[in-house]
Structures are given as C-alpha cells and as structure tokens.
C-alpha cells in the first residue's frame, strides 16, 4: 500500500515506521504525554560528492500517541537556516532534543562554513515540533557528531558526543554552553564508533552505543553510577543488522510503562545502506538492571485495528517453507511489501490485532494469484474467514467474504494457504 507522506499527514506503519521518505538516527523523547521522534532525514544525494555517502539537508519531527499512527510535522530545520553552517554541505547528521523550563532545545551536528569536520549546534523552540530557531554559533569546544543530552534528576545536564572517541561534558544551565572540559570516556572495549545515547533508570546510568565487533555496527551498552562514568561494559542490545546496514543509530525510551528501542535498518533501500528507515521494538530489563537483547522484528510495536488494512507482510512469524515477502513495486519501494504464500500449508502470523466488540461481519483481502488458492484467516484459534482466490487473478483485486465466526478483543492473527498453488497478499481488513 502506498503511504504518501505530506507534512501534517498521518501515516500508519509497522517496521519500518515511516514510509514515503527515509529516516535514520532516531532519538525518541516523551513530551506532554506524546512520543516525539527526531530522526535524521537521508536523501538520495543531489550532488556528485555524496552520491555514495550520507546526505541530509534538513530535519523533520514526527509524533505519535500509540506508536502506530505517526504524524509528520514537516521540516523543523534546514541547512540554509544555520547561520554558522555550510548551507550546501548536506551534513545534518544525528540530532537530539530535550525540554527545560518551557523551551525545547534541538541539538544537531553540521559542517561549519569554510571549515572542516563537524560542530554541534542548538536550535530552540516553544513547541516540540518547532519552529526551531538556531543560535548564531555552535557550542564552543565541541567538535564531532551525534549529540545526546542527559538531563539528570538534580537538573544538571550532560552532553555526550562522538569525536575522536566518546566524549562527555557538563552543560551550563542555559543548555547551550559547556560547563566543564570534555572528558573522553575510557575503559570500554575497542569498537565504539559513534551515536552514544545516555539515560538514567533506577539510579543507574546507562551509556548505549553502536559497537563494531565484526563487520557492521551492533548496539551495545555499559552501566555506571555517575553520568560521567566510569562505565562497565555489559554486552549487546542488538546484533548486526540482518539487512547488512553498516550503521545502527538508536535511542531508548519509556512510554506508557513500556520501554522501547528505536533504531534503523535500510529496509526501503536494500542496495544502498545510506538511505535508512527507523524501526521500533519493545525492550525490557532484567531484575539486576541489565538489558535483555532485542531481536529486530518486522511487526514492530503497537496494536493494529482490525478495521484498517493489516499489512500481513510485516509478520510476527512465518512458516519455515512456502512463505516469503517481496516488494509490491521494486521501482518504488515505498509502496511497501506483499506476502507470498507459495504452497499449501504456508502461513504467516501477525500479533496484537484489535477486533473490538466482535461485531465484524466481512473480511476483505487484496490479492493476486496465478494458480489460485484458498486463504484461511483465523484469530485466537477460531477460523474467521475463508477466501477462494480464483486462478488467473493477474491484477491486484480486493475480494470480500462474510465472516464465519466473530472474534473480539486483542488477538493474534494467522493466515494460511489451504490448497492451491500460490497466492500473494497485500493486506487484509475486517468490516
Ligand atoms: O546519519 C549519519 C551518521 O550515521 C550518524 O551521525 C551516525 O550515528 C550514523 O548513523
């Protein structure tokens, strides 16, 4: 399904959570009971120099209350707006945003005018979605990328960034100037690259970061008793990307009682890993405060309304044989994916679907098939509907059938091919 993205438009998605544009380096923050997402905005490069590299001209912000429906608030800052920045450097890399005393502070790396490398700038706003106004100068004494700000419970703020190692410094009350000399965090195993993220939980300080052990970035973490360390290395949060994305920038956030890991892979750009897309998965802690490893999923998080198009290709599980996914339109990958069930008995499961009060009467499926087949859809152990897909359904077609048995509440859904030679499914929906 095409999920076109206009500023202010609502989009709904599993993993990756944003379609219609690339998003990377996600920092998730909770402001006023809503989840705000501040990612970088990868674009295919309009200039020769960056054709094979990261290219970012501006930032968007997104918000959600259920982690399923995301609102794009549009551009909050572009390279042309930064007084000290090179307006053609396309270097608006990983940002962060924090709130203090009525103001939102947006931190971003960019290349300075006429200079080399990166500085870190600050832009402020009265609302989490801007408009953000950049300060005239970058933060003095900070050379590098990937700023992250930890606002501690006593009001003290700390800035972490990547630049010749992992650095931390105290920030002044104004959140725009360093209040101490930068300290390089040592004592961690070799392999730190970039993208530090720091937070406090139950009096312990967590420093999480991309870490290269083998070929590409894993996500790893360390714990300590003070924001400036020392930190003890604890292990992995996430393995290397199965899609081969070299980077994996991330943030952790608690929202409505559940912790989440925001990260990125290159789902919409399998051949070029500098065009990335943000994902979310749930995360949990062991009783001793250590982090349980997160396995990346396509299903992602949140509850899917049975009356909306259920993108079954973002599955929670599939059969070992006969089930796979493919792009709907390889020429425009943002159109999304389809599920291919190629033999009798092949299945896919999709968890956490809300059937409401159980009064759903029809089910529709958008399908395509050469040889035809029967789709059986069940939830919570009940067979809800059966769809006979005729052979030679060469164009996508929406077939609607009556529901055989109703289901209510939140259930896990399963779709299975029962007979026939193969059916492709774009989505299913109940009415
Ligand atoms: O997005 C550009 C850079 O790639 C970020 O700043 C790094 O953290 C990595 O994700």
Task: Describe the overall structure.
The strands form six sheets. Strands 21, 22, 23, 24, 25, 26, 27, 28 and 29 form a nine-stranded mixed sheet that branches. The protein is built from no helices and 29 strands. The model is unreliable at 1-10 (pLDDT under 50). The protein is an all-beta fold and 431 residues long. A hairpin with a 6-residue loop joins strand 16 (217-224) and strand 17. Beta-L-arabinofuranose binds next to strand 2 and strand 10.
* Class by SSE composition: mainly beta
- As a percent range, the share of helical residues equals under 10%
Per CATH, the architecture of the largest domain is: 5 Propeller
Low-confidence runs (pLDDT<50, min 5 residues)? 1-10
Beta-strand percent range: over 45%
Q: Quote the CATH topology of the largest domain.
A: Tachylectin-2, Chain A
CATH superfamily of the largest domain: Glycosyl hydrolase domain, family 43
Tags for this model:
Tachylectin-2, Chain A, 431 residues, 2 domains, 29 strands, nine-stranded mixed sheet, disordered N terminus, mainly beta, 0% helix, binds beta-L-arabinofuranose, Jelly Rolls
Summarize the structure.
Helices cover 0% and strands 48% of the residues. The chain is mainly beta. The radius of gyration is 23 Å and the shape is elongated.
Blueprint (SSEs and pairs):
Elements: E1 10-12, E2 24-31, E3 34-40, E4 58-64, E5 69-78, E6 96-100, E7 103-110, E8 119-125, E9 133-134, E10 145-151, E11 157-162, E12 166-171, E13 183-184, E14 197-201, E15 204-212, E16 217-224, E17 231-238, E18 251-255, E19 258-265, E20 277-283, E21 304-305, E22 317-318, E23 323-327, E24 337-341, E25 347-354, E26 362-379, E27 382-389, E28 393-402, E29 410-430
Parallel strand pairs: 21-25
Antiparallel strand pairs: 1-5, 2-3, 3-4, 4-5, 6-7, 7-8, 8-9, 10-11, 11-12, 12-13, 14-15, 15-16, 16-17, 18-19, 19-20, 22-25, 23-24, 24-29, 25-29, 26-27, 26-28, 26-29
The protein binds beta-L-arabinofuranose.
